[in-house]
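Extended Data, panel c. Modelled sequence:
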Amino acid sequence: MAGTDEDAVAAADDALYVLTAVLLTPAQFPSVLGDDYPEACAALGLLPRAEGYGLVLGQDGDGARWTVVIDDVSLVAVAVAAWDCGMEHDLSPDESTVITALPGWPLAVAVAAPGVPAPHDPAPEVTDRPPLAPPDTSTWGPAQRRLGADEIALQWSTWRDQIDDSRFASPTAAPAAGDAGDDAVSDEAGDEPGGSHSGLRRALAEARAYIDSPPPLGRVRSSFAPGDARTLRADGPGWSLVARTDDIAFVLLDEQPGEVLPVGRGPQLPGLLEALDKLAVRPL
């Protein structure tokens, strides 16, 4: 497996104080790392294993940061679910499940292990690869754009309540199935940003193209939503989309720093969301 380093694994296994853990699977991965699952794996120097990985972030006895990659995805899933519910859960991966140990952390961790030195990167002689570090989110770019879409998905009601549906143009007769023309986008986008927004038109057209040419695994993901709806997350070069299958969508663009562009139901969006949901990967 790419990145395996026996010395690094031994160092990380020596009294690793687990701080947190995340899943790295086709259906659930830190989107800050990439637009899709293979891209997120590549950021860590890992092959895109179909079953996915569990990432355990912690410190060794000297305080050094380590990311231990394990193949027991269920173990991490149970721990994350317990922590999300505010429950205590001991995460102690068996040595046989460890694939590799990577220096550093790929994500920002706000806590530290008690009784050891402050978090720092391992000494260079312990590992043969540069330490992982969280993507730069201090300025607007792909990582910040994807984090923004994640936040909208988590706080959907808050964002949805800010949208007055009257801002969207009244839909005209529905175009023919599969038509991704500017008129369809104009009806759905409404007055702000309006059909003249080339970036929004491009994002919706590229999302539609996924239906005929499926994108890399994880570009489109579907998760739980209230009622019979699903929450969709889709990404592409320079854009992110978050939507409810029974409601509107929001689009974020690299070229529009900090802006959230609403897309109304219109005649085309319902069919697009239904089709994307059918090809999306879902958590087990």
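The first helix runs from residue 6 to 13. This feature is highlighted in the accompanying rendering.
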